[in-house]
Design goal:
Layout: H1 2-38, H2 46-55, H3 68-90, H4 95-118, H5 169-180, H6 203-207, H7 218-221, H8 223-226, E1 237-241, E2 244-248, E3 256-258, E4 266-270, E5 273-283, E6 285-289, E7 292-301, E8 304-308, E9 311-317, E10 323-327, E11 330-335, E12 344-348, E13 351-359, E14 363-368, E15 373-377, E16 382-386
Parallel strand pairs: 2-4, 3-5, 4-6, 5-7, 6-8, 7-9, 8-10, 9-11, 10-12, 11-13
Antiparallel strand pairs: 1-2, 13-14, 15-16
Amino acid sequence: NSKIRQNMQNHNLIVRTEMADLLRPLSDQIQEVQNFREKNRGSRLFNHLSAVSESIPALGWVAVCQKPGPYVKEMNDAAIFYTNRVLKDYKDTDPCHVEWVRSYLNIWTELQTYIKEHHTTGLFWNKTGPVAPPSLFSASSGGPCPPPPPPPPGPPPMFMDDSPKPDDTAAQHSALFAQLNQGEVITKGLKHVSEEQKTHKNPNVRSQGGRTHQGSPAKSQNPSTSACAPAKKHSPVLELEGKKWRVEHQEKSHDLVIEETELRQVVYVFSCSNSTLQIKGKVNSIIVDNCKKLGLVFDSVVGIVEIINSRDIQLQVMGKVPTISINKTEGCHVYLSKDSLDCEIVSAKSSEMNVLVPEGEDDYREFPIPEQFKTVWDGSSLVTEPTKIAG
């Protein structure tokens, strides 16, 4: 058993090293972008550079094991903090900068859409697929090098180690795409169905309610279901990873505290239940994703606080926050402070939302957020307003 474990550890180490070598060139480019921003702090386009620098690690989504989509959105939110400054400076003077903001943020929006459609829970590698020959990882010796293809997503520097850097990025990309684009080879794993088993040609088979498939294994009937391993219980996490505080899989923990925060840090709270989290100081943004019965108390946020795919959330602002977004959430109570009364609250596909405004020293007055709206045509445009039944 110890020998088997040792072999597995050696294999995992080799895989991680090869993955690091494969993705290191893009990681180096990400670092170049961030260094360029630091070297140009006096530039009049510093907010533009900061928006790119803060969000460019989103290309590292391929190294995120769970739900890379929220990770990309988190990086996008970090960019919005600086693009809002760009809009403030140029929206009335130069439309080119406004168009740049729209185009740049659209990059990450499109990437999130792609991940949601194809890699919702992260990348899956074909363990039984062909192995790329070593020659693909070495530089070509004959003829001029072709222009490199568009860079695929790569990990931010925090994911990389000190293993040697390969010389030919284009060849590595070809090796990766060769495994993904197998063409007709993929269909070789399909099971042949005889004429007697085709329901559209045999009414008797249809009347049997599919009993002819009892002899076949369940995985042949529903490959997508069988490919998913049973959900395992994850260990709770509360740690700082680069610029991101990760608070994940906490259950019945009511003493969670994040201290010594910085303005550039973001907090990502994922899959926590029956817990309370306090965030001290000022952070860039907070994302609460897939949580239940969570109490969140924070001082100040310079960007956005987003609640998504959650239920029964208690949110209390002690300082200031410009925007709170509530999406796909059932039950959310927002306690505002006197300094945060100018906060914008944006909601969509959510219910049972209430905002509590301070009155006096210790009292709050509760206001429901409308859930039902009425839209009418006024002769020139659509006009939408909350219905009376919605409060």
